[in-house]
Design brief:
Blueprint: E1 3-4, H1 28-41, E2 61-63, E3 66-70, E4 75-80, E5 86-91, E6 102-104, E7 107-111, E8 116-121, E9 127-132, E10 137-143, E11 146-151, E12 155-160, E13 166-171, E14 180-182, E15 185-189, E16 194-199, E17 204-209, E18 219-220, E19 225-228, E20 233-237, E21 243-248, E22 258-260, E23 263-267, E24 272-277, E25 282-287, E26 297-299, E27 302-306, E28 311-316, E29 321-326, E30 336-338, E31 341-345, E32 350-355, E33 361-366, H2 377-381, E34 385-391, H3 397-406, E35 412-416, E36 419-426
Parallel strand pairs: 1-34
Antiparallel strand pairs: 2-3, 3-4, 4-5, 6-7, 7-8, 8-9, 10-11, 11-12, 12-13, 14-15, 15-16, 16-17, 18-19, 19-20, 20-21, 22-23, 23-24, 24-25, 26-27, 27-28, 28-29, 30-31, 31-32, 32-33, 34-36, 35-36
């Protein structure tokens, strides 16, 4: 990494003489921004590399006033929706992060990075059975006594929900994301770029090729199936596997779309939140300050979603901001609505309850670890480096040459302490600070 400096803002904050010191603290946030820029530009998903910490990356469920969710501290929690008091917790052997737990007949099912699918009694938190695989697990659905879940190793498993006995498995060519059952057909996307349709006996019916990875879940209605891809498109495909339309954004579409009254709501890595009709027409978009991928929800004529800019948003259904709630870390856990309240977890190790109308905090619950999880970006993407250019009254000539050589499309603006910087992201050298 190198940077061009033209002002005395790089002196130590104690004011010591010219060029004798450098205040690296002004770059504290720049490294974070550089890492997010690397995430946006990469064709890989860093969230396979979540490390142990108190962060929450989970869609909560609720049954009879009890909320259920997993966390990166290896615990699965049951807490009271009214008070935020813990009812029970279940300990796995690694990070628990997923779309949503599956619930059927008094049992809750969830997978973990430890490769185990757990079946736990909904009331007591006692283990019913476990099924061991050799891969990371994180998405599951229960239907008519069968539990279906995908894995990073490209296998879709079907188990007897009562006993945990394997019924069948289907092999794809890449990690399998959240299965969706609609009219007794199983649909799921994969990192092998395909959307699959299977019979509930595991028989392949058809597959539809996207141009890149399909990373999350699917929305469905009688007209078609709707899903996003890293190729920047939101797709609509018929139930027979025929392309109906696709809507292009300027970033990867990792968010599972939420379908409400003929409108699809979803976020993109281009930092915009979109409302698109089920015919593929843009209705509106709302800009944020970082990537969006968490599943939104619609509740009482508002749409709610969290962003990696550390804000949780409430918008009207025509795209106007109602309120936003600021968290201490990025907010990528999808929300739950219940009795006039919105519930969501965040990377800052807290699960919160706020008023759906005002966004006012009602209570918050802290997981067992107070430090946030790390995204192991280097192991997933390679080491991240960046170059910084300050723009002062005497802009360094080298910075202009740099911009011309690399092209403005690869540069991102950033401003801190009143100074505007630009940086470019690479994957080779370390991001250490130095002069």
């Amino acid at each position: 990494m190198r940077y061009f400096e033209s002002e005395d803002r790089f002196l130590k904050r104690d004011g010591s003489g010219p060029n004798v010191g450098f205040d690296a603290s002004v770059f504290g946030d720049l490294e974070e921004v550089a890492e997010w820029s690397a995430v946006k530009k990469s064709d890989k998903d860093v969230f396979w590399g979540i490390k142990t910490g108190g962060s929450i990356e989970y869609i909560p469920s609720i049954v009879e006033g009890i909320i259920y969710f997993g966390a990166c501290d290896h615990n699965f929690y049951a807490i009271d929706a009214e008070t935020g008091q813990e009812v029970w917790r279940f300990r796995a052997n690694d990070v628990i992060t997923a779309d949503k737990a599956a619930i059927e007949d008094g049992t809750i099912y969830f997978g973990s990075f430890d490769g185990v699918m757990y079946a736990v009694d909904l009331k007591t938190g006692e283990e019913v059975w476990r099924f061991k695989t050799d891969s990371v697990l994180w998405n599951q659905v229960a239907h008519d006594g069968v539990l279906y879940f995908g894995a990073k190793n490209g296998v879709l498993y079907a188990l007897d929900a009562k006993t945990g006995k394997e019924l069948w498995r289907f092999q794809a060519n890449g990690p399998i994301m959240t299965p969706k059952i609609y009219d007794d057909i199983m649909y799921f996307g994969s990192w092998d770029h395909n959307l699959y349709a299977l019979g509930l006996d595991g028989r392949l019916l058809w597959k539809f090729p996207a141009s890149d990875q399909i990373n999350w879940g699917i929305a469905a209605d009688g007209d078609g199936l709707y899903f996003g891809s890293r190729d920047r498109n939101l797709y609509a495909v018929s139930h027979e596997g025929r392309l109906l339309w696709k809507f292009k954004t300027n970033g990867a579409v990792i968010s599972t779309p939420f379908l409400h009254e003929g409108v699809l709501y979803f976020g993109s890595y281009d930092q915009n939140f979109y409302a698109v009709s089920t015919k593929g027409r843009l209705l509106w978009k709302f800009g944020t300050d970082n990537i969006l991928y968490a599943l939104p929800i619609v509740y009482k004529n508002k749409v709610y979603f969290g962003g990696c800019d550390k804000n949780f948003y409430a918008l009207t259904l025509d795209g106007r901001l109602v309120w936003r709630f600021r968290t201490n870390e990025f907010e990528s856990s999808s929300p739950l609505a219940y009795k006039g309240r919105i519930y969501f977890g965040a990377w800052d190790c807290k699960f919160r309850c706020v008023s759906a109308d005002t966004g006012k905090l009602i209570w918050e619950f802290r997981t067992s670890l107070a430090f946030p999880s790390e995204l192991d970006i280097e192991s997933q993407l390679g080491e991240v480096s960046f170059e910084v250019i300050s723009f002062g009254d005497q802009e360094d000539k080298g910075s202009e040459k740099y911009k011309k050589r690399r092209g403005d499309e690869d540069i991102k603006d950033y401003e801190t302490d009143g100074v505007k910087y630009q940086f470019d992201v690479g994957y080779k050298s370390s991001g250490k600070y130095g002069v």
